[in-house]
Design brief:
Length: about 220
């Protein structure tokens, strides 16, 4: 006989589950992961038993919050990224617009606060790191890899390691926001734009197929 817990199903249950996740996001960001489930239940306007019926452990609820928040933050950015990268327009312009979409999704105060919260819980809850990697910036890697490989195949770029190149592009245009956030700073709009335009130009210059080999 199966003892596997099955969460409630149906339209009403989905509405309650959404309310619980939204409430949990607010409470986690406000109070941290140590908050009790009864506080989350009160925020959602449901009983603690209802919360446990939907999410057997606080870790399960936290994972749902991460997935929901990443979807909210990055769905538009992913759509814009795919639209830009498949447009066939000038590659530099496309990468600049793509990077701006990333910043709009991933450099918001709430996204950065959630990232900090995940980082604080990784030692106790390493699954969060994997969920963040797949559903965060990692969700853009497949389309980025497709476009860059296409430019390599056309002879425009010379990239031996596509995965490394994507990480390098992130490092130029996106990761500075993560680094500054760790010590409570924020990058202003003008610097953000310069990081994007200069970073994309540097990236394309380094990987252009006709770049002269460095002298010995």
């Amino acid at each position: 006989m199966s003892t596997e817990r099955r969460p409630p199903s149906g339209e009403r249950a989905e509405r309650k589950r959404a309310a619980i996740v939204q409430a949990a996001r607010r409470v986690f960001l406000r109070e941290g992961f140590g908050v009790g489930m009864e506080q989350i239940a009160a925020e959602a306007g449901v009983s603690k038993v209802t919360v446990y019926n939907h999410y057997g452990r606080k870790e399960d609820l936290f994972t749902a919050v991460i997935g929901d928040a990443l979807e909210d933050a990055l769905a538009d950015a992913q759509s814009r990224t795919e639209e830009c990268l498949r447009s066939g327009n000038d590659l530099e312009e496309v990468l600049v617009e793509t990077a701006r979409a990333w910043i709009r999704g991933m450099a918001t105060p709430e996204f950065l606060a959630l990232r900090t919260l995940v980082g604080a819980e990784l030692r106790r809850f390493p699954e969060l790191g994997r969920a963040w990697k797949v559903n965060g910036p990692g969700r853009f890697r497949s389309i980025m890899a497709e476009v860059l490989q296409g430019e390599v195949d056309r002879g425009v770029l010379a990239i031996a390691n596509i995965e490394l190149a994507i990480t390098q592009l992130y490092s130029l245009v996106l990761y500075p926001h993560f680094a500054h956030d760790t010590y409570g700073d924020a990058i202003d709009e003008a610097t953000t734009d310069q990081l994007i335009t200069d970073g994309v130009a540097m990236f394309l210059h380094y990987y252009r197929a006709d770049r002269p080999a460095p002298s010995a």
